[in-house]
Amino acid sequence: MKGETVTVMRREQTGLDEGNNPVYETKPEPVGNVLVGAPNGENSGDSNRPDGVRIDANLYFPRGYKGDALRGQTIVVRGHPYKVVGDPLPVDGGMTPTEWNMTVPVTRSDG
Compositional bias (Basic and acidic residues) spans (predicted)? Predict the structure, then answer.
């Protein structure tokens, strides 16, 4: 299996304005070798997702990914922006059967 490059659009605070309000900038962070998969078929009314968020795709990030947490970030996949659902964490525990160790569920909103 071979992954593709996606771009995490990382929103970072870059300072404060004259009213002492935070100022943010979006910085692209390309991530290579990400597998893009179909959602797992769970219903959005499932008790695991009580807010009814539909999962449009699952992204499988490689073990080598050392970026910051993905919670609340936008990821551009094949030219389309997706919002990360939840707070994905890598699976670590000594087992290394594949190159990918973090599932990132994403949703897309066109409106």
Answer: 1-14
**Beta bridge partner(s), residue 11:** 26
List, in order of start, the domains of the chain with CATH numbers: 4-14+23-107 (2.40.10)
Six token digits for residue 99: 């190159």
Residue ranges with strand state E in the chain: 4-16, 22-37, 57-62, 74-77, 80-84, 100-107
14 to each of 10, 18, 27, 105, how far by Cα in Å?
A: 12, 13, 11, 28
Q: Would you state the torsion angle of the CA atoms of residues 92, 98, 102, 103, taken in this order, to the nearest 10 degrees?
A: -140
Half-sphere exposure of 32 (CA within 13 A, CB side): 2
The two three-digit tokens of residue 55, written as one number: 């999962």
Encode pLDDT of 61-75 as tens digits. Answer: 999 999 999 999 999
Whole-angstrom Cα distance, residue 42 to residue 105? 12
> Over the stretch 27-74, which tens digit does the pLDDT of each residue have?
999 999 999 998 766 555 554 554 567 889 999 999 999 999 999 999
